[in-house]
């Protein structure tokens, strides 16, 4: 059997935007009180059920704050990855009024708020985004790049790498990894991807297998959201 690598693709905990109408959303929201509870329970679950040795998150606040309690529980130093952000990038506005790219937090702010965390060298001091709204095709191409990066990770037997990402990009990435395989449609659609839902995948020499989809069974029913 070829060497196997294991990954957890995890949507961030509930953010203020998840609880708001589109017209009231902001470019980089914090977690809600519910989201903070979800992040704490995620951390406990990961520590008790997986041998997570690497933890990656996007530069968005909701991803960073979901990763924070997990990093403490797991005793790992997170890596803030410049390419696993939500589809669209960091932006203000919405479709009906237009979208405008925003800079996002830069390396200076990230180092101050998350001392000791590792930062992708592509994150500039002035902000990690600083571009126009990302198109669907650009996001799809990014999912391809992330797939190649994942397949290049060398993971010792029994170890697991966890990524705290976002619903739309998680759906794009799952489609890139599994889209040619007989996987239920709902497992690849962003509207079914719950906050802190865990999708456990294995990679065998470039072949991907979904071991568990969108797992939120560890959460009490009243703490589940999407």
CATH superfamily: Phosphoglycerate mutase-like
CATH class: Alpha Beta
Q: Main sheet: which strands, in order across?
A: 6-3-2-7-1-8-9
| Radius of gyration from CA coordinates | 17 Å
- Structural category is alpha/beta
SSE topology sketch:
Layout: E1 4-11, H1 33-49, E2 52-57, H2 61-74, E3 79-80, E4 91-94, E5 98-101, H3 107-113, E6 118-119, H4 136-151, E7 160-165, H5 167-178, E8 198-204, E9 207-215
Parallel strand pairs: 1-7, 2-3, 2-7, 3-6
Antiparallel strand pairs: 1-8, 4-5, 8-9
Helix pairs in contact: 1-2, 4-5
Structure explained in plain terms:
- The structure is a single chain.
- With 226 residues, this protein is of the alpha/beta class.
- The protein has one domain (4-223): 3-Layer(aba) Sandwich (Rossmann fold), CATH 3.40.50.
- 29% of the residues lie in helices and 21% in strands.
- Strands 6-3-2-7-1-8-9 form a seven-stranded mixed beta sheet, with helices on both faces. It has a two-stranded antiparallel ribbon with strand order 4-5.
- A hairpin with a 2-residue loop joins β8 and β9.
- α4 (136-151) crosses α5 (167-178).
- 41% of the residues are buried.
- The model has no long low-confidence stretch (mean pLDDT 93).
List the keywords.
226 residues; alpha/beta; Rossmann fold; two-stranded antiparallel ribbon; 5 helices; 9 strands; 29% helix
Short overview:
The chain is of the alpha/beta class. The protein contains five helices and nine strands.
